[in-house]
Amino acid sequence: MMFERVLIPTDFSKYSLKVIECIKELPGVKDVVLVHVIGPMNPLARVWDPGGRVEEAKIKLEKQKQSLESFGLNVKARVEIRMEGTVSMAIQSIADEEKIPLIVMGARGRGRVEGIFLGNVAKDILRYGNTDLLLMRYMVLEGGKPGLHKFWSQPFSKVLCPTDLSESASETISFISGLETVEEIVLVHVVSMGETWKEIEGEVVRATRSLQDIGKEIEQTGKKSKIYVSVGSPAEEISNVASAENVSLIAMNAHGKTWIEQWTVGSTTYDVARIADRPVLVRRPEQINRIKYPLIEASSYSRASL
User: Fold this and answer.
1) Residue 142 counted as domain residue
2) N or C: which end of the chain has fewer CB within 10 A?
């Protein structure tokens, strides 16, 4: 399954503009829903007329739409007026309405100047959403050099797949293995539990054997594979391997072996998305779409379509 339809939320910031520039590099994309959400500047305002902001947003959105259409994509642009709730609620509701399998958002840079890893909207969709999410990571250029630098040219070329050896992790690896643009898959398992060194060493041996078997299956598809088994903090170890191998993307499932007991994204996935210095794809099990998340329960908005 490819991501033929994607949703791109835009706030017209430099991060969202970079997403527009790079969307053509995603494999299989044909249709794009481009969305800008408008809410009250002052949440306590009793009277609010968004008319001027809507017209301004339409003009900016039309320019981004034309940019995407120049790549040969079918583009639908929507300006959403948010009367209550949050921007993230509106975005997830639109993704559900449009039957979008993937939301693509820009993540903030990791530079010292800005010092923020993820914006609040991206955080909410990551933690509470029910749609696959691709967080595009960019490096902030510092030292007097304005602008952003993208870490990747082809995001689905060399992909890091962390695995806890669960069924959902295997589904993500299988999905990545099936993409034609992927040339190499790096497998990582982090042992983070064990009461004694003997238990930890046993887990390392078991995980190594499992990853070797998975690697052989990957290589049967004509792709390269490499495995890492380490001991420590999962998010830090995964991020370190991603940097050492200079992967183009980290792809991981939202939940591990106990995802059905959780209402939010797993802590390891959340932490990796927060600290990683490159794009992160978060895959969600199909069953998760049957759960009503707090993010989308109170959704209400009006629409001003282009």
Assistant:
1) yes
2) N
Q: Find all residues with CB under 8 Å of 243, minimum gap 6, and list them.
A: 277, 278
Q: For residues 64 and 86, state if they share a domain.
A: yes
Spatial neighbors of 291 by CB under 8 A, at least 6 apart, are 130
Is 87 within a domain? yes
Domain assignment present for residue 284? The answer is no
**Domain extent for 48:** 5-151+292-305
- Nearest 5°: the CA angle 181, 285, 19 is 45
Number of domains in the chain: 2
Measured in whole angstroms, the distance separating CA 258 from the mean position of its chain's CA atoms is 21
Same domain, 193 and 96: no
Q: What CATH number should be reported for the domain holding residue 192?
A: 3.40.50.620
pTM of this structure: 0.84
Per-residue pLDDT of the chain (306 residues; tens, 9 = 90+): 568 999 999 988 877 888 888 888 888 899 999 999 987 654 555 455 666 788 888 999 999 999 999 999 999 999 988 777 788 889 999 999 999 999 999 876 444 333 345 678 888 898 888 899 999 876 554 444 445 555 556 789 999 999 999 888 999 999 999 999 999 999 999 998 777 888 899 999 999 999 999 999 999 999 999 999 999 999 999 999 999 999 999 999 887 554 443 444 578 888 998 888 889 999 986 644 444 444 434 333 444 545
Considering only CA atoms, give the Rg of the chain. 20
